[in-house]
Amino acid sequence: MSVLTRVADFVGRWFALLVLAGGIAGLAAPGQAALLAPYISLLLGVIMFGMGLTMRPVDFAIVARHPKAVVLGVLAQYTVMPLLGWGIAHLLNLPPLLVVGMILVGSSPGGTASNVIVYLARGDVALSVAMTSISTLIAPVLTPLLVLALAGSTLPVAAGDLFVSILQVVLVPVLAGLLLRMAARRFVERVLPVLPLVSVLGIVVVVAAVVGANADAVLSSGLLVALAVVLHNSLGLTLGYLLGVVTKLPETARRAVSVEVGMQNSGLAAALATAHFAPLAALPGALFSVWHNISGALVATYWARRPPADVPAESEPTGSGTEGSTGA
């Protein structure tokens, strides 16, 4: 187990570069990588099960203690990012399938890697975990409705099918992981250090499969989609932070809301796009998986050097739920 733990720690530290390597592998061997596409939903389900294992009922206690921050953050997650995805896609005149892909990314819940980024950025980790958990639990309802509202005029959207898919690959695995941790706490806590290995490898394979299935599109329009993804993520991080400023949240909470709004479960977006639309619609999700981990690392490095005003300079960030929470 000690060897696996060291390997898991290594892949967690180099997550962004490993995801980038997965994308390069998809371009280098598109035929082989595309063969993995049918397994994207299964891989995502395994990742979500791992996320559930990192959760505990106590992680939701912050909702009662600080409801304002949690509600504002979740509302921003499901308003700022979907509208940005829709607006940027139309501003850049992307084709319909890529418009749907951008909207799917924006309408997905927060990415699980956000908890680690908030921890490194000296933000409010408990708030980050609560926002990720709640946005994930309500995704089966909100994600299909948002995609239907924003993309329904672009392409036919089967909201009911999206709802069922999110139940299968997100909600059921997350709840199963949460229940297993409650029933077998000691066993689960022994394997928690290894979970980043499973999550990182899963996302690397997802990115490789999506890029491989869209190799021609990546080479022909990848730069434009990459620009859209960078704008989407950067504006999400910025607007999330400004929302905290306007609503007078403490600095640690502003950082958490910024990261939670800007980082998406892009693996889910890619899986849904592949299953319900076409491989091309999964391209924004794949590129977002690469970029938001790079930008998250940069943001964490910047904030780690600047202690928040509401936390003494010598204090370490506190909160629960950071273990094993590297993911999409």
UniProtKB/TrEMBL annotation:
Cellular compartments annotated: Membrane
Phylogenetic lineage: Bacteria, Bacillati, Actinomycetota, Actinomycetes, Streptosporangiales
Topology relative to the membrane: Multi-pass membrane protein
Pfam families: SBF
Region annotation Disordered: where it falls in the sequence: 309-328
Main location: membrane
Cross-referenced InterPro entries: BilAc:Na_symport/Acr3, Bilac:Na_transpt, Na+/solute_symporter_sf
Transmembrane stretches, start-end: 12-30, 36-58, 70-92, 98-120, 127-150, 162-180, 192-211, 223-246
Name assigned to this protein: Bile acid:sodium symporter
Organism: Nocardiopsis dassonvillei (strain ATCC 23218 / DSM 43111 / CIP 107115 / JCM 7437 / KCTC 9190 / NBRC 14626 / NCTC 10488 / NRRL B-5397 / IMRU 509) (Actinomadura dassonvillei)
Swiss-Prot/TrEMBL keywords: Membrane, Transmembrane, Transmembrane helix
GO CC terms: membrane
